Amino acid sequence: MRTERSIFPLVGLGAAAILIFAACSSSATTAPGGSSGAGASGGSSMDALIAAAKAEGNLTTIALPHNWCDYGDMLTGFTAKYGIKINELNPDGGSGDEITAIEANKGSTGPAAPDVIDVGLAFGPQAKAKGDIAPYKVSTWADIPDTAKDADGYWYGDYYGVMAFEVNTAVVKDVPKDWSDLQKAEYKGEIALAGDPTVSNQAISAVWAAGIATGGSLDNAQPGLDFFKQLNTAGNLVPVIGKTATMVSETPIRLAWTYNALSDKDSLAGNPAITVTVPTSGRFGGMYVQAISAFAPHPNAAKLWMEYLYSDAGQNTWLKGYCNPIRYDAMVKAGTVDSAAQAKLPDTTGTVLPTLDQITKATDVITKGWPTEVGASIK
Hints:
Blueprint: H1 9-18, H2 43-56, E1 58-62, H3 71-82, E2 85-89, H4 95-104, E3 116-120, H5 123-129, E4 133-134, E5 156-168, E6 191-193, H6 201-213, H7 222-233, E7 253-257, H8 258-268, E8 274-277, E9 285-293, H9 299-309, H10 312-320, E10 324-325, H11 328-334, H12 339-342, H13 356-374
Parallel strand pairs: 1-2, 6-7
Antiparallel strand pairs: 3-9, 4-9, 5-7, 5-8, 5-9, 5-10
């Protein structure tokens, strides 16, 4: 256990023990002028990649809200560094929407075709199996734990957080401390998910976490559906996607990743006052992964974007946005971690993260069961 905030041991945990899956052994694509294996690992390789990306002149991202992991600074930082314009699609979309956008725009070079995606872990292998993503290994590839990446370079972990309660204390005087508290009558018409649980990894994770706290496990997600059925029947669940704007009055309790909730707290700046609570039980963490579309209109800009994300600057930008970057352990060793950003993360002792197989099974249970068992249409 490290002496820093306890979310950080999850990198070692999440890297060494939690994300267990097999890997194959074909080579990844490389940047222009690069060698096989890692991406733009040398100076000339990076120069060639930068030149090729600038020649394309554009990058299209999807589902990257500016307050999510400080993507606002990430996007502006990339453009400032390389002069490449970014076309942002569907900022509030979920992981499923990102995959759908790739598949709907195969062969298109227009502005609706995403170059890169940032999706929940389960969606990475699915996208690879369907041929939706292309392999590329960034130059810092060796710093990404083997258990947090596809060996062929099709997808790789980027960051993760822990499910939390984001509460507007101007409306909610008695802040819930645990999942069971959410069933209380005093929270009627106040609780919202941060996405549609049929397509959003964040919402799926909230359902699963609630189930773990109320009789379920990493191998049994059904109790999560049972919990939300009760929540919906009682009228506590609000059938809208909870966002920063809705926190003011419509959805004063939002179930979201720590980094999104803490970012909201900063952006609202006390108007209204927000409290972020990691529940005492059912502490559940989720990792997201990056990938490049197999049909990317700007493939070199996409590779350069990945290089930026996995550089020290990119990783510290995520950390500043309350996200736990995947290269954290290597950066601690190298002394390149932003210590001020690190100190702001909450205590998440006891958090569990699922294996890929568990995620796949739970996602199937929740996405299929939500419409019929819970019956709430979240929009």
